[in-house]
């Protein structure tokens, strides 16, 4: 056992209202520089939708992530041989058009336009060329054109849905969508790190945050092709790649990352988990249907004395073990099993988990009364407007069982709370549902509290970063003792 | 008891001087024998037998350390030497120091006393060259027949008129008339034993040519010189044009192979949807 600590995340999709406040918070802090205009380290997608960049989930086109061949884990996008041939042109990268051409508006024109019969307008201009442009796509184009035959109907997650189910998704009166906020997953088996020819990418030892060393990055962009979530971005101004840094300067100061902090719907949870680093490769090679369970098995019980002993032996501070014991992520992922990794079939073992959304049930209409409540409780999950298969493609590597489990449990919690507070359903029914969903009233209460009544401190259990220990691994803090006065890195010399 | 330290000291001194003598001989073999002999007659440079009786030690050391400087300052004896060598200036020897020059002069003194010095020069056969020799020399020059000690083929740096379709290397000088330039078989052969110019010396110090390689090479150069002429610029131009054409062809090929490199996933979706709508 090789116990490490990782800052992991949960996004509760049932609570996301798609307001993009997270994206704006991130943009204003990190990517409002020249060269980063098109980057959205945090973006919110509408599902079904093609996403940002367009169809990022279509790995036949982008070749991201890992695959298993001859019992070995291999990157799809690159290898030593492929690097030679693709060194000047990597054929599997999104183009500027797949992201979008960033634009602003010619606001000066509102003031400077010559007097005329019409109101002056601020026309869009490209932030790349400075020319006037026609806006053809944007970072949340699905939001703007939800359900369009061009974008939403080309969602790669529609694979495996019957034509009826697909038609249902886009029928005007039954149209359904949910939001899917995305940041870097800070994966346990990051493809970007493996692909970098310069060794510029690394996963921080103390908390697992994946970072790009801007001094070592040579702009080969192998990471951009390798990341299956397309959360690596190339800064055309500096010629280096950039990515979400999980606001590590904020984390080190004990604050939640900006997108977490600003989240209006409070959908975001953050906390560290202890995991077994020695089994990562073994788990990443499991067949698709075992991946979700495999990744869960990597996450260790922070109350287990043996785990605590091994963690201490690996230099994990007691305070970090303590936060792992209080981690909301551990509860969602490992205890309640209602948070699932996105597209784990890419085998990067993402450490951002999603609680799948409860879509409204299929409404039925009788005598001009639209009835949104079904009598058959358990069939609601199966009959919800978002087909189970669609969610399974997103969160279960195409297999429905884990998604069904998570949704059933959530449903049961809702009915339990309804029986408690509204009282229009039988408590015995609710308890039966809980039992059948592998839950209990105590667990339902805990899920309810962490979902609905959670405080700031409950949502964000930020492990102390102990920078002093990390720094001590690299340099001797007493190096300058007795040789340098304060305020100097070099000893002051006598004289002018 | 008392004489023991003295004895030890004497041993050390003797050993050191013997070592220095051996060192000087090695140095002479590596750097000088291509142009000089001791009692073997002149090659490109003069025979160095009794050289210390012809000039003062001080002058000799100065000349050894920087031949060009002595010639440049118009020294009459140096001018005479230059004339005798038909204008070939002794190259500066890398690693030459005053101590080394003195050691070399001491070595020359000692060698001059011997009835037959170890540096009388390469004893190359006088037999006339056969067409076989020329063909073998050509093969060696072209690298078709690898050098026994693993040195690089001549062609990698040198060329000879019409030796290969695109000419040879351009780093070193054209060797078409080297046979005339170095005045014949004996000088050229001696030169090849231990090439003395800085580039050749570093390349061939570890990979000396064998006598059985030198003879065919000299035959080949003699044949080339007899046919005369010089490497023409046509080959040079051809080479340039071929490179240019090759590069253009490679670019066209890459453009063809990666013609979809600017394809965008989004545009394809949009165009596809529009086509279906029509």
Short descriptors:
heterodimer; A: alpha+beta; Alpha-Beta Plaits; nitrate reductase domain fold; five-stranded mixed sheet; two-stranded antiparallel sheet; 34% helix; globular; B: 278 residues; mainly alpha; Cytochrome Bc1 Complex, Chain D, domain 2; 3 domains; elongated
How would you explain this protein's 3D organization?
The complex is a heterodimer of chains A (496) and B (278). Chain A is of the alpha+beta class and 496 residues long. Chain A has helices spanning 21-30, 59-62, 80-85, 96-99, 108-112, 141-144, 163-170, 191-195, 222-226, 248-252, 258-262, 280-284, 291-298, 305-313, 318-326, 328-335, 377-383, 388-395, 401-421, 427-436, 441-452, 456-459, 467-474, and strands at residues 3-12, 43-47, 66-69, 72-75, 103-105, 124-126, 178-182, 201-203, 210-212, 232-235, 240-243, 268-276, 299-300, 352-355, 364-366, 369-371, 460-461. Chain A folds into 2 domains: 9-98 and 124-259, Alpha-Beta Plaits, CATH 3.30.70; 284-461, Orthogonal Bundle (nitrate reductase domain fold), CATH 1.10.3650. Chain A has 23 helices and 17 strands. In chain A, strand 3 and strand 4 (72-75) form a beta hairpin. Chain B folds into 3 domains: 17-113, Cytochrome Bc1 Complex, Chain D, domain 2 (Orthogonal Bundle), CATH 1.10.760.10; 142-227, no CATH class; 237-277. Chain B is 58% helix and 0% strand. Chain B has 13 helices and no strands. Chain B is elongated and about 105 Å long. The model of chain B has no long low-confidence stretch (mean pLDDT 82). The A-B interface holds A 50, 53-55, 58, 61-62, 89, 91, 94-95, 97-98, 136-137, 149-151, 154 and B 258, 260-267, 269-270, 273, 277.
Second-tier CATH architecture of the largest domain in chain B: Orthogonal Bundle
CATH architecture of the largest domain in chain A: 2-Layer Sandwich
- Could you say what the CATH topology of the largest domain in chain B is called? Cytochrome Bc1 Complex, Chain D, domain 2
Through-space gap between termini of chain A: 59 Å
> Biggest interface pair, residues each?
A-B, 19 and 13 residues
Averaged pLDDT of chain B: 82
Q: Give me the Rg of chain B, rounded.
A: 29 Å
CATH topology of the largest domain in chain A: Alpha-Beta Plaits
């Amino acid at each position: 056992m090789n116990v490490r600590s990782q800052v992991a995340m949960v996004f509760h999709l049932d609570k996301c209202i798609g307001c993009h406040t997270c994206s704006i918070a991130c943009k204003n802090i990190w990517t409002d520089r020249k060269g980063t205009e098109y980057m959205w380290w945090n973006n919110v997608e509408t599902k079904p939708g093609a996403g940002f960049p367009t169809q990022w989930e279509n790995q036949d086109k982008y070749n991201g992530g890992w695959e298993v061949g001859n019992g070995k884990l291999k990157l799809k996008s690159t290898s030593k041989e492929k690097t030679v041939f693709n060194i000047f042109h990597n054929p599997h990268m999104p183009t500027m058009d797949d992201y979008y051409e960033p634009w602003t508006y010619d606001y000066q024109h509102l003031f400077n336009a010559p007097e005329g019969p019409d109101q002056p307008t601020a026309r869009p201009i490209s932030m790349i060329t400075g020319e006037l442009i026609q806006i053809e796509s944007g970072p949340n184009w699905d939001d703007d054109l939800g359900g369009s035959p061009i974008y939403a109907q080309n969602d790669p997650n529609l694979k495996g849905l019957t034509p009826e189910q697909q038609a249902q998704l886009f029928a005007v009166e039954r149209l359904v969508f949910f939001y899917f906020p995305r940041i870097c997953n800070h994966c346990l088996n990051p493809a970007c790190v493996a692909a970098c020819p310069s060794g510029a990418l690394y996963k921080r030892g103390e908390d697992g945050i994946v970072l790009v060393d801007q001094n070592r990055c040579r702009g080969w962009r192998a990471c951009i092709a390798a990341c299956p979530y397309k959360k690596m971005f190339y800064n055309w101004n500096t010629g280096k790649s950039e990515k979400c840094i999980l606001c590590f300067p904020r984390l080190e100061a004990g604050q939640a990352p900006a997108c977490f902090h600003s989240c209006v719907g409070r959908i975001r949870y953050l906390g560290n988990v202890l995991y077994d680093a020695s089994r990562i490769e073994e788990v990443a090679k499991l067949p698709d249907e075992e991946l979700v369970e495999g990744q869960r098995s990597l996450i260790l019980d922070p109350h287990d004395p043996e785990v605590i002993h091994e963690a201490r032996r690996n230099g994990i501070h007691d305070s970090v073990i303590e936060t792992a014991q209080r981690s909301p992520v551990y509860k969602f992922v490992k205890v309640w099993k209602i948070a699932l990794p996105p597209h784990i079939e890419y085998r990067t073992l993402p450490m951002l988990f999603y609680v799948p959304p409860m879509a409204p049930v299929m409404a039925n209409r009788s005598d001009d009364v639209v009835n949104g409540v079904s009598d058959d409780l358990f069939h609601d999950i199966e009959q919800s407007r978002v087909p189970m298969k669609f969610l399974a493609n997103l969160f279960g590597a195409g297999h429905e069982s884990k998604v069904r489990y998570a949704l059933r449990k959530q449903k049961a919690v809702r009915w339990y709370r309804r029986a408690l507070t509204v009282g229009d359903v039988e408590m015995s029914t609710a308890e039966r549902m809980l039992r059948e969903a592998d839950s209990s009233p105590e667990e339902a209460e805990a899920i309810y509290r962490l979902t609905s009544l959670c405080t700031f401190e409950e949502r964000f259990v930020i492990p102390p970063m102990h920078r002093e220990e990390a720094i001590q691994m690299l340099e001797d803090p007493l190096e300058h003792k007795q040789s340098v006065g304060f305020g100097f890195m070099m000893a002051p010399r006598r004289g002018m | 008891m008392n004489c023991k330290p003295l004895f030890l000291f004497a041993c050390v001194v003797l050993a050191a001087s013997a070592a220095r003598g051996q060192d000087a001989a090695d140095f002479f073999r590596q750097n000088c024998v291509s142009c000089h002999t001791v009692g073997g007659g002149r090659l490109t440079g003069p025979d160095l037998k009794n050289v210390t009786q012809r000039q003062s030690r001080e002058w000799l050391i100065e000349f050894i350390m920087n031949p060009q400087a002595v010639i440049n300052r118009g020294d009459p004896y140096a001018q005479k030497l230059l004339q005798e060598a038909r204008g070939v200036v002794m190259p500066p020897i890398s690693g030459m120091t005053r101590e080394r020059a003195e050691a070399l002069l001491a070595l020359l003194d000692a060698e001059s006393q011997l009835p037959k010095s170890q540096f009388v020069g390469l004893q190359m056969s006088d037999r006339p060259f056969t067409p076989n020799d020329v063909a073998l020399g050509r093969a060696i020059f072209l690298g078709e027949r690898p050098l026994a000690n693993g040195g690089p083929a001549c062609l990698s740096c040198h060329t000879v008129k019409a030796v290969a379709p695109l000419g040879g290397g351009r780093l070193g000088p054209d060797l078409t008339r080297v046979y005339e330039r170095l005045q014949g078989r004996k000088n050229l052969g001696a030169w090849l034993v231990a090439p003395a110019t800085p580039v050749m010396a570093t390349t061939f110090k570890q990979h000396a040519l064998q006598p059985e390689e030198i003879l065919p090479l000299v035959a080949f150069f003699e044949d080339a010189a007899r046919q005369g002429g010089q490497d023409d610029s046509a080959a040079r131009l051809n080479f340039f044009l071929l490179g240019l054409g090759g590069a253009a062809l490679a670019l066209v090929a890459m453009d063809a192979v990666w013609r979809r490199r600017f394809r965008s996933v989004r545009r394809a979706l949009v165009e596809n949807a529009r086509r279906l709508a029509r």
